[in-house]
Amino acid sequence: MYQNLIYETTRGVARITLNRPQVYHALNPELIVEITQAVLVAHADDTVRVVVITGSGDKAFCSGADLKEALESKKTAAETLEEYYEPMINAIREIPKPVICRLNGLAVGAGCSLALACDMIIASEDAYLSLLFVQIGLMPDAGATFFLPRRVGMALAFELASTGRKVFAAEAMQMGLINKSVPATELDNEIDKLVNYYQSAPTLAIGTMKKVLNQSFQSDLARMQEFERINQDILFESDDAREGISSFLQKKKPDFQGK
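Below the sequence we write its predicted structure tokens.
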């Protein structure tokens, strides 16, 4: 089914592994469409509780747009963004399940945008991010101008966008660009810790949190309070809420089913 990535599901975890190693997993239309399809498959699969996106090998997460193919395309930049990149980013933001970026190497250009679209980024300490669009006379795209200032603030966002400098994992964690930096040998263990948590967490509640938090920067307090009322009412009637409240009162560990 997939020619440019590996899609695997085990015990409630969907793993999407970009697999164009000869070009450091550069994004061409075929890979972008497959990433989008894989996220949508995970969205529709009720057994999936958490998604992990990474690159194969240990050198690259994603090297950004495949510029050779982009130059050969008959589409304008705007058409390419609208037809390919935006559906991919939107699928990641709209899936009601946590999406973890396993940042195993460089993430540059649109590859950095892809990482920033994920809910959490756990990075190998030798990995780095770079919005190097400026180095080829372009501006960040694929959602980066939305996610970047929300993660690091406007001043740092401008610096990183206008210089395109490399930000290695330790500094990226300090500035809030990523969630955690660990030695390369510990990356999988750190991912497994998160995955193990989300496998047994109340997925419906977490998906609802993601949906509501996505609205936060575009809404005032009154609107967010309305979102809270509407969605908390729905969650209060869920199986997981009943299980969670009952288990809390009985002082036992809840058995959440994600429903």
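Residues 21 and 56 are 7 Å apart (CA to CA).
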